[in-house]
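sry for the spam today, last one i promise. struct tokens for design, 151 residues
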């Protein structure tokens, strides 16, 4: 009888396992263009937007990859000190802290996956842009760049 119950429980559990969602579902999520302009060069990234507290809490956790032109934007209702950590984030990220005027406050490059150390802005910011680790260096993006997007 125990074997029958176990088999029944497994037959019910297996179909549900696929319902949890793919942690890499970013490819199918709606994106917006974010433009980074610096020294006459323009780079456009197609990023997801984390608008709600729940979306911002989850961020890019559990993702195992990120497109070269992908990422996530975290807009804030009002400027504040930005503080992020890499808990459950499996890939390195470049975290770009953006002031209200679109200028860059700080770039934290190649943050350490799964680190619990806070990654903090230098001052108040109105948004944060997360890109694949190494993107800022690869494209020569630094704090003199300007970041824009339309919501």
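last one done:
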């Amino acid at each position: 009888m125990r074997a029958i119950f176990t088999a029944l429980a497994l037959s019910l559990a297996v179909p549900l396992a696929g319902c949890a969602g793919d942690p890499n579902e970013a490819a199918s999520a709606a994106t917006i263009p974010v433009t980074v302009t610096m020294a006459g060069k323009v780079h456009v990234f197609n990023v997801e937007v984390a608008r709600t507290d729940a979306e911002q809490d989850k961020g890019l956790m559990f993702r195992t990859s990120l497109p070269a032109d992908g990422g996530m934007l975290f807009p804030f209702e009002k400027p504040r000190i930005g503080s992020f950590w890499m808990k459950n984030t499996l890939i390195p990220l470049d975290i770009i802290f953006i002031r209200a005027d679109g200028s860059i406050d700080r770039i934290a490059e190649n943050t350490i996956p799964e680190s619990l150390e806070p990654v903090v802005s230098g001052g108040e910011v109105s948004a944060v842009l997360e890109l694949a680790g190494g993107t800022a260096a690869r494209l020569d993006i630094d704090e003199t760049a300007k970041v824009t997007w339309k919501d």
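Residues 2-17 form the longest helix (16 residues). ok im logging off now
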